[in-house]
């Protein structure tokens, strides 16, 4: 079945090869991915309207960097948050709990798990946790003003279902990007 297929053959060799590259090249790659992620996330503030369609793609640089190396993915995640503090501070409340957390958790899942379903569930769990933390603990209306800040089972279940589908899309897109970029980054 599709969800239980192993992805080990396409990711693990590139991760091993990436660990053999020079440390300078790995750090420069992390900085480049952080800059790209910060620019994509801040597009919502710089380009109202169209920028909100661009900002979800800030998951990709964090995801790709985390797929190669989890510690480097964490550095990229932290550096992106620091860059957002300078570029677009209003995005700093959303990125660490949603798009950035999804990229980091999916990348780590690609590093630690073999089956697609485990990877998708890991990403969905962290994305759901981040959205619910923003919504219920911080009381930030991340889902819009139509959704109440008081706990609702329907909202929680809907968020979990959305997070599963969204993590599935990003895991497939991340795998596609990883296969394309591994020749450039590892060489």
Calculate Rg over CA atoms.
16 Å
CA-to-CA gap between the ends? Answer: 34 Å
- CATH architecture annotation name: Orthogonal Bundle
Q: CATH top level?
A: Mainly Alpha
Helix content: over 70%
Mean pLDDT: 89
Number of strands: 0
**How large is the share of residues in beta strands?**
under 5%
Alpha-beta content class: mainly alpha
- CATH fold-level topology: Arp2/3 complex 21 kDa subunit ARPC3
Q: Which residues sit in consecutive blocks of at least 5 with pLDDT less than 50?
A: none
Number of helices: 9
What is the element layout, followed by pairings?
Blueprint: H1 8-20, H2 23-41, H3 43-46, H4 51-54, H5 59-68, H6 70-87, H7 99-112, H8 116-137, H9 153-186
Transmembrane segments: 27-50, 62-87, 93-112, 119-138, 150-178
Protein name: ECF transporter S component
Keywords: Membrane, Transmembrane, Transmembrane helix
Write structural notes for this entry.
Helix 5 packs antiparallel against helix 6, helix 5 (59-68) runs parallel beside helix 7 and helix 5 (59-68) crosses helix 9. The longest helix is centred in the last third of the chain and has 34 residues, at 153-186. The protein has nine helices and no strands. 37% of the residues are buried. The chain is 74% helix and 0% strand. It is an all-alpha fold and 187 residues long. It has helices spanning 8-20, 23-41, 43-46, 51-54, 59-68, 70-87, 99-112, 116-137, 153-186. It is globular. The mean pLDDT is 89. It has a single domain, classed as Arp2/3 complex 21 kDa subunit ARPC3 (Orthogonal Bundle).
């Amino acid at each position: 079945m599709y969800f239980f297929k192993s992805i080990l053959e396409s990711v693990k060799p590139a991760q091993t090869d990436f660990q053999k590259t020079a440390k300078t090249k790995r750090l420069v790659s992390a900085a480049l991915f952080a800059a790209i992620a910060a620019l994509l996330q801040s597009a919502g503030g710089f380009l109202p309207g169209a920028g909100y369609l661009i900002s979800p793609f800030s998951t990709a640089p964090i995801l790709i960097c985390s797929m190669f190396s989890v510690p480097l993915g964490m550095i990229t995640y932290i550096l992106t948050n620091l860059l957002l503090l300078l570029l677009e501070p209003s995005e700093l409340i959303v990125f660490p709990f949603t798009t950035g957390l999804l990229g980091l958790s999916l990348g780590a899942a690609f590093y630690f798990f073999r089956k697609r379903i485990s990877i998708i569930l890991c990403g969905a769990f962290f994305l759901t946790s981040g959205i619910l933390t923003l919504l219920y603990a911080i009381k930030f209306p991340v889902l819009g003003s139509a959704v109440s800040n008081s706990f609702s089972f329907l909202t929680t279940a809907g968020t979990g279902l959305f997070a599963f589908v969204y993590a599935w899309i990003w895991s497939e897109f991340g795998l596609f990007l990883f296969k394309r970029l591994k020749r450039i980054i590892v060489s």
